[in-house]
């Protein structure tokens, strides 16, 4: 749960950023482990936002800031993407955009921005792109997280969650949910489910750096899932999209009428 104190702090920060940088923040949410549903007691708050510039900046030949990143302060990790950048990534079926729009913790949602953009998302769903994204995340987590047969509990979930997300795409052919509990529906009737739930309870009370041995049952499940996803990714047909829906949404959001 996110405390009311944190919510107020984030909303005040949003107002401060809007005034300081002359931007309009249209959406802000929690990302990372607190949104996924397996935060540790000392996890940061990963706050992500989408913003627009004044219309005259978009009509200028000058450059404008397409992303913002701020140093972590008091456990607050704050960064954002400008709307045009966000929509450009959505056009490429970017998994991060899909996840932000499904966050269970929303700090700011101007004029139902999230709901309106989410309606467009299925048009830009590329199953192969998402599967390879999530499998790439798994490979990276193994490469950086395993040493002498040990792995940080936190890092283990950076493997399990994307494996399940890729499997969701492979099996259901739809955008996977962001929340870990929903992804776990894929293994509810498998003995591995109990292993994952026990590990989840351990994660919720563990320190960020706590390490454990790799779990054979879980490793077998992950490898089988990876193989299934690889095969599925090769079976999907290539897709071609237009930017029409995104262009309309962009113009409407920045207040441009042609």
Quick recap:
With 258 residues, this protein is α+β, with helices and mostly antiparallel strands. The protein has helices spanning 4-21, 33-36, 55-58, 83-91, 95-100, 113-120, 127-145, 153-172, 180-183, 192-205, 216-235, 244-254, and strands at 24-31, 45-52, 67-69, 76-82, 106-109, 146-147, 150-152, 211-213.
Description:
The chain is of the alpha+beta class and about 260 residues long. It has two domains: about 5-120, Beta Polymerase, domain 2, CATH 3.30.460; about 125-235. About 55% of the residues lie in helices and about 15% in strands. It has twelve helices and eight strands. A five-stranded mixed β-sheet has the order 3-4-2-1-5. The protein has a three-stranded antiparallel β-sheet with strand order 6-7-8. It is globular. The chain starts with a helix and ends with a helix.
Mind sketching the topology for me?
Elements: H1 4-21, E1 24-31, H2 33-36, E2 45-52, H3 55-58, E3 67-69, E4 76-82, H4 83-91, H5 95-100, E5 106-109, H6 113-120, H7 127-145, E6 146-147, E7 150-152, H8 153-172, H9 180-183, H10 192-205, E8 211-213, H11 216-235, H12 244-254
Parallel strand pairs: 2-4
Antiparallel strand pairs: 1-2, 1-5, 3-4, 6-7, 7-8
